[in-house]
């Protein structure tokens, strides 16, 4: 018996010491694994300096061990500036429950060995540069609760077995290059709360079995290439708070009872698909909405009443074919006056008729963006619009509005983008506009505005664009307006009745790229100070009564591409320096110019110049068929006629050349199309985020031209088009980047001016700082 007890004790002792040595051996493995992990990190930062022999590894920074055994249970080294690859030895840390390496610079693949971490609950590898496929056997980590792979460069398909992670609650793989279909096994993610696969390249449809995920609350697969119809079962998941399927290719209709089956929905982002049919009237029953994004679909009919959504911040319904041009089309607006948190209301590019209702004056004072452009809205702008003190974007362009611009507009102290172009507005431009120092763009083109341009506009020292063309404006150009040094993109005052001379102050526009003051009644000489506008690429002063010589100071306009001085009374010789500039087109026709035509630069190309309708020109290249220049003495009258007769047809042929060049090349730069009135349009192509990033030098601070509560504006040069763009980054509509997000954005800012480069915009959610 006693020997038995002794044996037992002996065995105990043996066993104990064996356990200890076994445990020691195991923890030795952990230490070696950690060192192997460190070895794969090039140039280890400060954070890993404590990983040395002077400390037990359980005290190394970022390492947490369990109490009982000295085994690593947590490794948290997020945001530690680690650069390198993830060692396969990580798979030997067999007690690991948490691994956080997000926001570093890990490259190469995620090692397959990760599948040995069967105790792992939290795996966060987001915001690195991992490449390759998601390890197929990651589904062996059956205890995973949270799996975050977002913001990497992962490719291939989602592993077929992923669905067996029955405890998984959060799964984010947004912002990668994952393709293929959604694995059918997803139906078995029975604990899932959040799925975020935005910004990938998933194909095919959403399996109908998705309806089995009864705990799903956040479901975002926006900006993929998914197609088919949205399965009805998805609308049965009453736990859904956030549903985003934007920027895909879904078609079909929304179920009429949608607002009843998804009573908790707060965010509905289904914009940029091919959805059709009516907007379900039951949306009104989902009273928790904060954002409804329906833009860019093919819906029809009227907008149902949307009252009782006290938390609604964004209602985006642009370009979806709503409205019938009828009087009551806008009646849904009455139901929005109780949404006291409304910040953005975009209904532009639809078919809404009726009168702009006074009720808009009662909208939330938090409203920042109101875009009603390109509809058939009548009536006048209510005086109460001045109540909407948070507005930063007000777009009412391309409607049938009449009456005058209320002077209460001056109360909109946050207004940055203001578009009223292409209406029938009359009266004068309110001088109170000068109270809005946040203004960046004013476009009132193509109205019937009268009176003079208020000098108070000179207070708007953040203005980038001022467009007042095709109105009835008279009086002189105020020198204050030409002293807006921020005016860097457009100054367009063409086709008005402006008189007086071009003020000397024009020389202060040193950053301006585009100036069009054509077709007015300006007189006097071209001021020498114009030579200071060194950024000018396009200068149009044609169709005025300008006289005197072509100012020698224009020599310093080195960026100039298009110059039109035609249809004035300019006299003297054609200055030789015009041939030294990098002009692509030059129109000097119908002036009183005389003497020798230069032969270099733009003058070498008959299709780029127009010089007809001048008195006494001679010389130039042979194809111009001008008479030879005689000695400096006065020329005989007879040759004048010849020059005229020859020059006119040549100019005409030149025009045809320019036109066909435009037609065939789809010229993307703005080119002055000489005196025929071809639209001076700069076509707007969808622009990819990466191009914008490149254009703005990575949204660098040097390119920042304006910032405010409304967001930031960057100036950039699009490499592909050579077009200068302003990129506006919104704070508000953070729906995430996408291949086509520019479309929505462009319409939201919605600049319809023909001369304007579109002001592009991006979302803050796109990660402007570019850590992805
Ligand atoms: C080792 O780690 C300790 C503790 O962080 C630190 O004080 C020491 O400088 C480190 N030694 C080396 C050689 O990095
Ligand atoms: C990412 O890490 C950098 C330092 O490496 C830090 O400045 C930044 O705030 C981190 N970002 C996030 C989102 O944690
Ligand atoms: C640790 O992992 C590496 C790579 O997976 C493997 O080669 C090695 O044998 C493992 N070491 C131990 C002691 O298990
Ligand atoms: C990755 O970066 C984005 C943008 O900075 C941030 O919102 C997100 O939380 C980060 N993800 C992780 C896992 O840190
Ligand atoms: C992703 O990979 C592509 C090419 O494979 C590369 O150009 C890009 O820079 C990578 N992006 C990141 C965030 O590592
Ligand atoms: C995945 O696990 C299976 C066993 O479940 C194994 O046969 C296979 O080799 C593993 N694949 C990889 C790539 O590790
Ligand atoms: C889901 O799990 C069940 C039970 O384990 C299994 O029979 C079924 O095949 C799984 N579904 C898919 C699509 O893998
Ligand atoms: C998107 O899916 C369609 C088929 O639905 C396919 O023709 C197209 O090539 C896909 N586009 C991309 C970018 O994968
Ligand atoms: C939605 O749920 C209801 C009630 O639970 C059920 O009768 C119906 O079949 C479900 N519809 C779909 C498409 O799953
Ligand atoms: C839906 O909302 C409307 C309007 O508020 C209300 O009349 C109706 O009873 C609601 N339906 C349900 C099922 O709650
Ligand atoms: C707005 O709220 C007020 C007070 O709660 C209510 O009397 C009114 O009917 C509501 N208007 C709409 C359009 O829902
Ligand atoms: C706004 O502008 C008007 C007209 O220019 C001026 O009389 C008024 O004082 C200005 N108000 C403020 C608050 O600046």
From TrEMBL:
Keywords: ATP-binding, Leucine-rich repeat, Nucleotide-binding, Plant defense, Repeat. One of its GO terms (molecular function) is ATP binding. The keyword Hydrolase does not apply. It comes from Populus trichocarpa (Western balsam poplar). The keyword Chaperone does not apply. This is Disease resistance protein RGA3. GO terms for biological process: defense response to other organism.
């Amino acid at each position: 018996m006693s020997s038995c007890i002794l044996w037992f004790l002996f065995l105990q002792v043996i066993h104990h010491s064996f356990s200890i040595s076994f445990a020691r051996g195991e923890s030795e493995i952990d230490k070696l694994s950690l060192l192997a992990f460190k070895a794969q990190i090039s140039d280890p930062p400060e954070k890993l300096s404590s990983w040395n022999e002077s400390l037990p590894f359980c005290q190394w920074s970022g390492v947490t061990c369990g109490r009982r055994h000295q085994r690593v249970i947590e490794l948290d080294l997020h945001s530690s500036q680690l650069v390198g690859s993830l060692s396969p030895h990580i798979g030997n840390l067999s007690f690991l429950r948490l691994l956080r390496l997000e926001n570093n610079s890990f490259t190469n693949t995620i090692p397959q060995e990760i599948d040995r971490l069967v105790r792992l609950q939290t795996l966060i590898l987001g915001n690195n540069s991992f490449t390759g496929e998601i390890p197929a056997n990651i589904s062996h980590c059956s205890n995973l609760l949270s799996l975050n792979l977002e913001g990497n460069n992962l490719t291939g398909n989602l592993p077929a077995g992923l669905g067996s992670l029955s405890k998984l609650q959060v799964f984010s793989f947004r912002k990668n290059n994952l393709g293929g279909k959604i694995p059918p096994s997803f139906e078995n993610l029975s604990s899932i709360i959040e799925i975020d696969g935005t910004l990938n390249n998933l194909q095919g449809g959403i399996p109908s079995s998705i309806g089995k995920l009864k705990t799903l609350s956040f479901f975002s697969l926006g900006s993929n290439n998914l197609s088919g119809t949205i399965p009805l079962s998805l609308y049965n998941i009453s736990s859904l708070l956030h549903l985003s399927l934007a920027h895909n290719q879904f078609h079909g209709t929304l179920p009429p009872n949608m607002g009843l089956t998804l009573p908790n929905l707060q965010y509905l982002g289904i914009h940029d698909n091919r959805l059709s049919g009516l907007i379900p009237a039951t949306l009104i029953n989902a009273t928790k909405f904060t954002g409804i994004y329906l833009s860019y679909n093919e819906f029809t009919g009227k907008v149902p009443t949307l009252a009782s959504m006290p938390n609604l911040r964004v209602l985006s319904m642009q370009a979806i074919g709503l409205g019938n041009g009828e009087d009551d089309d806008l009646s849904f607006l009455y139901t929005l006056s109780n949404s006291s948190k409304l910040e953005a209301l975009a209904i532009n590019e639809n078919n809404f008729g009726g009168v702009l209702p006074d009720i808009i004056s009662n909208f939330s004072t938090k409203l920042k963006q109101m875009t009603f452009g390109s509809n058939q809205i009548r009536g006048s702008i209510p005086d109460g619009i001045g109540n909407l003190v948070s507005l930063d974007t007000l777009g009412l362009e391309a409607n049938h509005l009449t009456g005058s611009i209320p002077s209460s507009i001056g109360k909109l102290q946050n207004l940055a983008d203001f578009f009223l172009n292409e209406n029938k507005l009359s009266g004068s431009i309110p001088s109170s506009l000068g109270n809005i120092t946040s203004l960046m763009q004013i476009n009132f083109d193509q109205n019937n505005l009268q009176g003079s341009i208020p000098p108070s506009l000179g207070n708007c020292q953040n203005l980038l664009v001022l467009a007042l063309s095709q109105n009835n404006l008279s009086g002189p150009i105020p020198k204050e307006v030409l002293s807006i040094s921020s005016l860097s993109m457009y100054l367009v005052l063409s086709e008005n009745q402006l008189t007086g001379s071009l003020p000397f102050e024009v020389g202060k526009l040193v950053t301006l790229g585009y100036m069009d003051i054509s077709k007015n009644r300006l007189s006097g000489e071209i001021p020498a100070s114009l030579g200071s506008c060194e950024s000018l690429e396009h200068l149009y002063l044609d169709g005025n009564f300008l006289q005197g010589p072509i100012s020698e100071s224009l020599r310093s306009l080195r960026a100039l591409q298009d110059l039109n001085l035609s249809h004035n009374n300019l006299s003297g010789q054609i200055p030789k320096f015009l041939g030294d500039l990098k002009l692509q087109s030059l129109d000097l026709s119908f002036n009183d110019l005389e003497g020798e035509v230069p032969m270099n630069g733009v003058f070498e190309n008959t299709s780029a110049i127009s010089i007809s309708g001048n008195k006494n020109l001679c010389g130039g290249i042979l194809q111009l068929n001008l008479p030879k220049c005689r000695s400096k003495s006065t020329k005989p009258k007879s040759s004048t006629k010849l020059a005229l007769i020859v020059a006119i047809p040549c100019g005409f042929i030149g025009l045809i050349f320019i036109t066909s060049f435009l037609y065939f090349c789809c010229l993307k730069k703005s080119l002055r199309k000489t005196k025929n009135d071809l639209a001076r349009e700069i076509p707007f192509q969808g622009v990819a985020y990466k191009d914008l990033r490149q254009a703005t030098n990575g949204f660098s601070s040097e390119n920042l031209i304006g910032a405010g509560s409304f967001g930031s504006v960057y100036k950039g040069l699009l490499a592909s088009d050579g077009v200068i763009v302003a990129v506006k980054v919104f704070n508000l509509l953070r729906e995430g980047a996408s291949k086509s997000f520019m479309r929505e954005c462009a319409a939201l800012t919605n600049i319809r001016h023909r001369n304007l480069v579109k002001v592009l915009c991006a979302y803050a959610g796109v990660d402007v700082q570019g850590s992805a």
